[in-house]
């Protein structure tokens, strides 16, 4: 799938209590009607122009992978995952945080490769010193292999990708509690009694839903630590010159892989 323009479809974002309403799709100005891409039940929006801007958005999960130049639709996403520090992937970061602050939206949670922590903190400090803004956000440096619980039913894990500078991708997992085999078929009241008596009646099951690589060479596929990446229902891979007639263009490939 190639998506070389920002999708303008509407999707719900976090509520705002601001007197300055966040822009709605109808207020963006000139609009083109474009069918919304849905993969494995997830609406997907985004922009990918090689060397200029990458931002892939899953609005129903309120998350964005990389921020590009901060396209309008990214602002309402509460979670942001940065793959690496090339400007076409991270350039819009201060604008993303500032604009959420302007609309009085909840401070975003931003995941970055751990080695970027001090640089990103300095970046925000620099902007604060220039315009006295707060730029409130939660910064979460993640080492490769490290996990973080986004919500009770959602977690993320960083994985290694292979690029000219240090980089990492992210796998988003659905986390479910599933009744143990032994108790399947038991009447509801018996299951309730077991639970009340302190018996552990469920197993935690994690299902890789979405994986995003950012810029990478294909080596990530061979990395045994990245097995979950290939098991994800949706794999977003950014590649250069995938097709011979697309010289000097980049494309985003979203492959829906059936489990
Ligand atoms: Zn890059």
Structural notes for this entry:
By secondary structure, the chain is α/β, with parallel strands linked by helices. 18% of the residues lie in helices and 33% in strands. It has six helices and 13 strands. The chain has a seven-stranded mixed beta sheet with strand order 1-2-3-4-5-6-7. A six-stranded mixed beta sheet has the order 8-9-10-11-12-13. A hairpin with a 4-residue loop joins strand 3 and strand 4 (63-65). Bound molecules: zinc ion. Zinc ion (ZN) binds at residues 84, 86, 163, 215.
Layout of strands and helices, then pairs:
Blueprint: E1 37-39, E2 42-49, E3 53-58, E4 63-65, E5 79-81, H1 87-90, H2 93-102, E6 109-113, H3 117-131, E7 138-142, E8 147-151, E9 154-160, E10 168-179, H4 188-196, E11 202-215, H5 219-222, H6 227-231, E12 234-240, E13 250-256
Parallel strand pairs: 4-5, 5-6, 6-7, 11-12
Antiparallel strand pairs: 1-2, 2-3, 3-4, 8-9, 9-10, 10-11, 12-13
Biased composition (Low complexity): 8-19
Pfam family, one: Anti-Pycsar_Apyc1
Region (Disordered): 1-32
């Amino acid at each position: 799938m190639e998506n070389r323009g920002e999708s303008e479809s509407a999707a719900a974002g976090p509520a705002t209590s601001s007197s300055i309403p966040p822009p709605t799709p109808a207020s963006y100005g000139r609009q083109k009607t474009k069918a919304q891409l849905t993969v494995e039940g997830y609406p997907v929006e985004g922009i990918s122009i090689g060397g200029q801007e990458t931002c892939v958005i899953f609005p129903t999960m309120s998350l964005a992978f990389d921020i590009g130049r901060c396209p309008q639709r990214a602002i309402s996403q509460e979670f942001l995952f940065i793959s690496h520090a090339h400007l076409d992937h991270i350039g819009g970061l201060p604008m993303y945080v500032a604009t959420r602050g302007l609309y009085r939206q909840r401070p975003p949670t931003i995941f970055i490769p751990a080695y970027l922590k001090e640089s990103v903190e300095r970046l925000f400090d620099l902007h604060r010193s220039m315009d006295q803004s707060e730029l409130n956000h939660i910064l979460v440096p993640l080492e490769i292999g490290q996990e973080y619980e986004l919500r009770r039913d959602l977690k993320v894990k960083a994985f290694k990708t292979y690029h000219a500078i240090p980089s990492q991708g992210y796998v988003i997992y659905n986390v479910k509690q599933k009744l143990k085999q032994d108790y399947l078929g038991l009447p509801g009241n018996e299951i309730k009694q077991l639970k009340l008596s302190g018996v552990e009646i469920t197993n935690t099951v994690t299902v890789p839903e979405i994986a995003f690589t950012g810029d990478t060479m294909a080596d990530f596929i061979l990395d045994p630590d990245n097995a979950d990446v290939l098991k994800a229902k949706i794999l977003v891979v950014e590649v250069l010159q995938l097709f011979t007639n697309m010289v000097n263009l980049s494309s985003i490939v979203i492959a829906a892989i059936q489990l």
